[in-house]
Design goal:
The complex is a heterodimer.
Chain A (H helix, E strand, L loop, with lengths): L1 H4 L19 H39 L4 E10 L2 H4 L7 H6 L2 H19 L7 H5 L6 H11 L7 E7 L2 H8 L15 H13 L2 E5 L1 H5 L14 H32 L4 H13 L4 H15 L7 H25 L3 H9 L4 H29 L3 H5 L14 H6 L5 H10 L4 H31 L4
Antiparallel strand pairs in A: 1-2, 1-3
Helix pairs in contact in A: 2-20, 5-7, 11-14, 11-16, 13-14, 14-16, 15-16, 16-20, 19-20
Chain B lengths: L1 H27 L11 H38 L11 H20 L5 H5 L8 H7 L10 H39 L6 H41 L2 H6 L3 E2 L7 E2 L2 H32 L2 H16 L2 H20 L16 H25 L3 H9 L4 H30 L2 H6 L17 H9 L8 H35 L1
Helix pairs in contact in B: 1-2, 1-6, 2-6, 2-7, 3-5, 3-6, 7-17, 9-12, 9-14, 10-12, 11-12, 12-14, 13-14, 14-17, 16-17
Classes of the chains: A mainly alpha, B mainly alpha.
Chain lengths: 452, 490
Amino acid sequence: MTDLSQTPAAAAPRKHGGSLLEKSSRTRKRNAAETRFKAYGIAAITAGLIMLLVLVTTIVGKGTGAFQQTFVTLNVELLEAKLDKKGNRNIEDIKKVTTFGYAPIIKGAMETAIEELGIETGLKPKELAGILSKDVAAQLRDYVIANPDQIGQTVEFRFLASGRVDGYLKGRVTRDSIENDKNISAEQLDLVDALAAAGVLEKTFNLDFITGADASDARPEAAGIGVSMLGSLFMMLVVLALALPIGVAASIYLEEFAPQNWLTDLIEVNISNLAAVPSIVFGILGLAVFINYMHLPTSAPLVGGLVLTLMTLPTIIISTRASLKSVPPSIRDAALGVGASKMQAVFHHVLPLAAPGILTGTIIGLAQALGETAPLLLIGMVGFIASNAPETLSDGLLAPNSAMPAQIYEWAKRADPAFYERAWGGIIILLLFLVTMNTLAVILRRRFERRW
Amino acid sequence: MPTFWLVALLLALSAAGFYGGRRRAIATAAGNVKDLHSLPSYYGYHVSLAAFVPAIGALAIWLLAQPMFIETRVSGMIPAEAVPESSTIGLVMSDVRRVAEGLDLAVEQGLLTAREARNVADSGQDVRALMGEVGVALGDDVRPEVLNAAQAYRNLSNTGRTAMTVVVALLALGGFGWAYSRTHKDFRARNVVERAVLALLVLAASLAILTTIGIVLSMLFETKNFFGLHSWTDFFFGSTWAPNFRGGSELSILPLLWGTLYISFIALLVAVPVGLFAAIYLSEYASGAVRAFAKPLLEILAGIPTIVYGLFALLTVGPALANLFGKGGLLGVEWMAGATSVLTAGLVMGIMLIPFVSSLSDDIINAVPQAMRDGSLGLGATKSETVRQVVMPAALPGIVGAVLLAASRAIGETMIVVMGAGAIAKFSANPLESMTTITTRIVSQLTGDTDFASPETLVAFALGLTLFVLTLGLNVLALYIVRKYREQYE
């Protein structure tokens, strides 16, 4: 105590000299190091957030184009002489006209439209039709087969423009970039400009991208993600139907009943290791066991669902165990105290109280499974055109289909840059699903989570 | 699909069992529920489980075992001299399976009647052309031994399927009848049901072990086949990766391992400093508001599917790097030939791993006791000195564990490298060249038409096994380090 009361003057001279008010060079250095260190931290977080921002802006910037598509509105005269030579409207005869037979009609419709609009162009009829998608003839044929009574009439159609024309309107294709392009010429682009000015050719919202099927390499403008979305849906159904009950059962055993022995230890070690096994290894397992050994059909959503189930199980088990653990023991004790068996205490009291947590974990597990791609490559869900939407449940599970991430990968591999836009668009849809699922999980947690 | 109907039948039977058992129990107690040993629904569950569980178990085991059984029986029928020198018994068996499948398809499509399919060998028809018609492509003409084996294969499969249906149906009905006859008011239904449910829970928990065994066995088995066809010294110690489907491939893992490790190294070079400093700032400096804002945003990066990062690497980062370092690029150097490179994949993978490193390190830094910080600050150290000299050394084992976990993630990552790294296997130190990785090669060897008798396909299993062992080793090591560290403070 006496030391403290002594006056400062009596203290020994400060080692580094100077007063307390004036910082020594060493203090300044230390303070500068402190500021630098803090700045590194801020820089690291900023870097992380900037990367997120770049990623999101890239996705949105490049993907929104896929939701718009260029259409050409044309009046088509469905010539009887070409489509139904016998004139008896026999549907079998009409079906005999292939898509090649429709080409002259489309050319004619383009010529008429250009004449009516008074556009001067030196293009041949074939080149005129070249600004339309290759899908148009099939579209026209489907219409005629569905409405044979319309033959001979003039009907207004909204046709897809070709991928190049669409790219030109979206700024992806420029006059410089098409110099060596066989698919489109500068004169055709002049015509596109004129048609756009006349309002015949316009860019509108494209529902077909969301609901439609994939298309072949030559028709990027017709490709959609709808069918592979169904493939993903069926896979998620399988995952939900298997992973949730099995995961919950496993967690209940490990959390409530398992004795402390080597078997329990083995199971626990296995689960934590499986959670960290690379996803491609699950793909190899799926290929070897489900396809090669059990002869389940390749590319089937059922197989994809089984593989993703095995992959998601550890996630679901870990989160389910956490939510079982958070139910206080007093609940169990109370149930046992009024005469319930242990099984009844768990199933009647603990499980319902843990249900919101289990549900949250399951949704997060499903979201993870929905975005997984690598195992799907090995079980054959890429490399073909998923063009037929499944009609029945067993079709949906067993018929070859793609899945959203696999479809995106498929598009990214194709040569035409028009598919890249589709891939980014597909990612927007995929991320929308993931955001929705995660938001749902957060809401569930906020709403129902109980703090004991 | 008969199996589907069989399962539906079992479900219906077990539903009927529930009501039947419940009603019978109540009837034996003359409608007085209080006389029953257990609650009425337990008698229902009892019959329902007895009808369903053994039958579905038998069905599952049968479906798993039948292919193996048929395989051994049929391959035993093929004499050793019928296997051409250039091929193996495995190749012949895959032909047998295809022919059998093709014949079934032909019957299904109405090209043949069932009888014609059985006697196709005598009719002198060109079986290969017939297979072509139903869409089953065969490499060469069908030899009589193969055709015989295929017929045996079909016979066995058909018999097996019929036997399966009979056995499963008998088990279900038997279980139903047995449990129904046992149902009586004094029967201890709850105890029996609870024991059965416990057994099911154990079964569900053991699935994790089964999956691991499945992974290891499926890869081990095919890897063994691979080493039967290809020398293991070339695989582990060779220097060239040059698969050639006409034979004479050089399949060495070393160039792939080099590419994998190089890309992972670059990814960690990005992720570890950024993730670590972010974690330090968030746990030591940031105010509650900043933390609540920045932490979830950073974690979004971890929730984005890898296909998105792959596309980002392929279409954004790769071309951007090529613009910088490529021909006619901004720097005026010609260091980069295409968009795919080690750097492209590494950078993007690094971004993906940032939240992984940061949230793990954050947990570990937060686990360091506050008393240690207080002590250091009380002695006059600045905050950064405290972090560097007290908190970090204490958290170091945990952080090493986190980095190892991140490394294991990087090694096993597939989509980013498939889309961003390229396909050329070589040893090179230039990060702007495209290289390939283990996961990329697994994908390329196993997609498309795969022939499970060629070393070029089977090598993927050897690669997968190596990958599995590698990541498992890293994980076990990391978890060991993290656990050991945690014990010190708890």
